[in-house]
Amino acid sequence: MQAPEVQKRDGLGRVERVEIDGAPFARRVADGGRVPGSAWIARRLLARERRALRALSGLDGVPHEAAGASASDRILVRGWIEGEPLSRAPALPEDFFDRLDELVLALHERGVCHNDLHKEANVIVGRDGLPWLVDFQLASVHARRGRLFRSRAQDDLRHAEKHRRRYTRAGRGPRGEESGGAGRGIPRSWLARAWRRAGKPLYVAVTRGLLGTRDGQDAQRASLGPWPAWTPPHGRR
Known about the structure:
Layout (H helix, E strand, L loop, with lengths): L4 E6 L2 E8 L2 E7 L8 H18 L19 E5 L3 E3 L5 E3 L2 H14 L2 E2 L9 E4 L4 E3 L6 E2 L5 H22 L21 H21 L18 E3 L6
Parallel strand pairs: 6-11
Antiparallel strand pairs: 1-2, 2-3, 3-4, 5-8, 7-10, 8-9
Helix pairs in contact: 2-3
């Protein structure tokens, strides 16, 4: 294994690019920081990601856990996705957001909600032009499709729709007009409203103020662009 290349570091640990038997992988190390309890939080988030990836095993558009390389409760090794975050992609296929909707719905079919799709950095544009989803630390796996699952699933679709609108409005779209997808017209759920009013301020205070976590420059494309060029549709998976 070659020396790791650190991609991200914060108060909860780090994400590294490593090579195993000549193939690239992403390794998340949940070692916490100086803040008491941060290591415990980091391990809990890593466990959530591992559970979600295992529930999604074999699904296109999701990185898969590397078998035998993630035995520790503080280390997760998954496939490396060659591509760019949505916020930095220079080009998008005309049907990119349709494919993104399909991928999000495929997660839900397996009972998994991502719960962090508002970040453009968590949507990767692969070299093949297809969408990939990463960072499942906040993901939830649901055995039942009750009210909590439905609320979280709707919020996933709503966030995907927000990205679609942002990239297609004001003449930015492939046909110079905004188009709607699976999340069009979905209002903010009761869970999202509660999170926005109470949970998010606390989360920001803890992760940014105490743990030093930042979304980084790639979190969202600047309003002035440059916006991606549009290429012919990729087609269905």
